[in-house]
Design goal:
single chain; about 625 residues; alpha/beta; seven-stranded mixed sheet; four-stranded antiparallel sheet; 21 helices; 11 strands; elongated; nucleus; DNA damage; XPG_DNA_repair_N; hydrolase
């Protein structure tokens, strides 16, 4: 949830649309609880008997985030909730269940903190075990996971946070990704604090003040009668350094001094009105609306009307506003009184709240020690433990081992290419079975280009892996779930393709272009040259073929030469017999009537038919 009162709608205009390459080679902190809750409820709503949706979501999303987006994820787990958080969780449960708030138990001092749901804790424990087998770094927060994600982002350990809790900005996050879909061409929302500060003029402490007014995860109510718009209008009256002090003053019943106000700071019970506001406005003519009385204008013409080219006083038009100094001052005074009346009304609402503002909530948002150890966090990405991971998923998900290895291939190929780009060591891929072979083509996937890379199976490999197709696995999963339809595979990455050519086994995977360039620059150059040669015009191809022919030698006229463009008649001989006239017949005479045929007549007839066809086409087209 985070900050209440549609806080995300306030930040929506300042969101940036980013694509999958935005997170490439960047470290990103992931709120693990957000991932589990987001898709667990959605999958169970459609498939009540789905097996371990939290493990499925974590497995596929981690592989997509690591391989497709090229990010280095750091997963953060929630710690023990604070007493305020526990009370808010109980209150939220009562609210969703339709129970009366009078039955809500009070959280007295010394009461043990309510632990999180045991079923949810078991889901988190399973996901942590899965991520450890995948080699991902995992950190445990003292309290809220989004607080530690924001702290890592604030201290520069990660470049962004993935969470749906809007209070990550209050904890100090600089870049927050609210939600993203791995298999989608649509960009995801990315919020930068710099854009929010430039658009709304609000900084961290001012956002904390808004959360105190509209409600948050630790205080669901906030101040009654306060929405996001009212809170933003009130907070914008003060700068970041003084906003929290002003909230303390208002909580004690003191109206704060606002820059540009007419009055001075007073207590709510003793309002102070400036004498300048009580002065009456100078008299104006009811006929023309200008300064002066109607009686005076009847005796002598109005100066303003005469200056406008009229001899007598004219009737004022509808919506007329006098622009004299007295009227301008009066309008400003009315606006100021209206604003001060609104400020007094708002301050009375704040002062009516008991123990406002809550200093414990303020300290919770502004502290920067959300992890157990105060040293720099150890962020290390290890190689996946494939064997133990297969056993874990076979036991928990009832998946086939070959299917698990197939879905892990994008992650293993990404690790392999990164190692090749950094060390240039010729290691094999996927349990020493496949090695890099070539680049087949450029593939556009979800609006972004990738290289379709061929991985060749080595000859000395004796292990045979029976990869199932996606349809076969869907049937297998369908039987294991006992559902009437296969579950949604929107987060599941594309399965590698299998290719058999001349007895050799190949796997085709989609890889990032820049990563392949860094790992195999020679192969990329060769592929680029071949692509240019295919896309070049026919003249350039002919010239290259001639040069290739000259290199092979002028005496080599073999029709099977690889550099010579063969004619189609070399492969398919014509069977049409040429027409030969009989010696007894004259080709210039007709065989039926013996009259000679005039060539000029034939040409003229053909040309007339051709002209007729052209004219008919013109009539049809125009």
């Amino acid at each position: 949830m985070g900050v209440g009162g549609r806080f995300w709608d306030l930040l929506k205009p300042y969101a940036r649309a980013e694509g999958p390459d935005f997170l490439r080679d960047k470290r990103v902190a992931v709120d693990l609880s957000f991932w589990i809750i987001q898709h667990d409820a959605a999958i169970r709503a459609r498939r009540p008997f789905a097996r371990s949706p939290h493990l499925r979501t974590t497995f596929f999303r981690t592989i997509a985030l690591f391989s497709k987006m090229g990010a280095y994820p750091v997963f953060v787990v929630d710690g023990e909730p604070s007493p305020l958080k526990s009370q808010a969780m109980i209150e939220r449960f009562y609210r969703c269940s339709g129970l009366e708030h009078a039955e809500l138990p009070k959280n007295e001092p010394g009461t043990p903190v309510k632990r999180r749901n045991q079923h949810f804790a078991k889901c988190v424990s399973d996901c942590v075990e899965l991520l450890e087998l995948l080699g991902m770094p995992i950190l445990r927060a003292c309290g809220e996971a989004e607080a530690l994600c924001a702290q890592l982002n604030y201290e520069g350990h990660v470049d962004a946070c993935i969470t749906a809790d809007s209070d990550a900005f209050l904890f100090g996050a600089k870049c927050v990704i609210k939600c993203y879909r791995s298999n989608s061409s649509e960009p995801y929302e990315c919020y930068n604090v710099s854009d929010v500060e430039a658009g709304l003029g609000l900084k961290r402490k001012q956002l904390v003040a808004i959360a105190l007014l509209v409600g948050n995860d630790h205080d669901l109510h906030g101040v009654p009668g306060f929405g996001v718009d009212t809170a933003v209008r009130f907070v914008q009256l003060f700068n970041e350094d003084e906003i929290l002090d002003r909230l303390h003053e208002v909580g004690q019943g003191v109206i704060p001094v606002v820059t540009g106000s007419i009055g001075s700071a007073t207590h709510l019970d003793e309002p102070n009105v400036d004498d300048a506001l009580s002065k009456a406005r100078s008299p104006h003519c009811s006929h023309c609306g200008h300064p002066g009385s109607k009686k005076a204008h009847s005796k002598s013409s109005c100066e303003h009307c005469i200056n406008n080219g009229f001899e007598n006083c004219i009737v004022k038009p509808a919506g007329f506003k006098c622009l004299c100094s007295s009227c301008e001052k009066d309008r400003k005074s009315k606006e100021q009184r209206k604003h001060e009346n609104w400020l007094i009304k708002v301050c009375k609402k704040i002062a009516a709240e008991e123990n406002f503002p809550n200093t414990e909530i303020i300290a919770m948002y502004l502290r920067n020690n959300n992890r157990h150890c105060h040293d720099s966090p150890s962020l290390r990405w290890d190689y996946p433990n494939v064997g133990c991971l297969v056993d874990f998923l076979v036991y928990n998900m009832h998946w086939d081992p070959s299917y698990i290895r197939q879905r892990m291939l994008p992650m293993l190929s990404t690790i392999y290419l990164r190692e090749m780009a950094s060390t240039k060591t010729r290691n094999l891929l996927l349990c020493d079975q496949y090695e890099f072979h070539s680049i087949q083509r450029v593939k556009i996937r979800y609006g972004h280009p990738y290289y379709l890379v061929k991985w060749k199976r080595t000859n000395n490999s004796n292990v045979c892996i029976n990869y199932k197709t996606q349809n076969e696995h869907s049937e297998f999963e369908h039987e294991s779930l006992g559902a009437s339809e296969p579950i949604d595979l929107s987060d599941e990455p594309d399965a590698p393709q299998i290719l058999i050519d001349d007895g050799c086994w190949f796997l085709l995977t989609d890889e990032n272009i820049e990563l392949v360039k860094a790992a195999f620059p020679d192969e990329v150059d060769r592929f680029s040259q071949e692509k240019k040669l295919k896309e070049s015009p026919s003249k350039h191809r002919k010239s290259s073929l001639k040069s290739c022919k000259n290199k092979t030698g002028a005496g080599d006229h073999s029709p099977t030469s690889a550099c010579v463009q063969l004619s189609i008649t070399e492969f398919y001989r014509t069977t049409k017999v040429a027409f030969q006239a009989k010696p007894s017949e004259d080709p210039g005479q007709n065989s039926q009537n013996g009259e000679p045929v005039k060539e000029g007549r034939k040409i003229s007839a053909a040309s007339s038919d051709h002209n007729t066809l052209k004219s008919a086409k013109r009539r049809l087209m125009f």
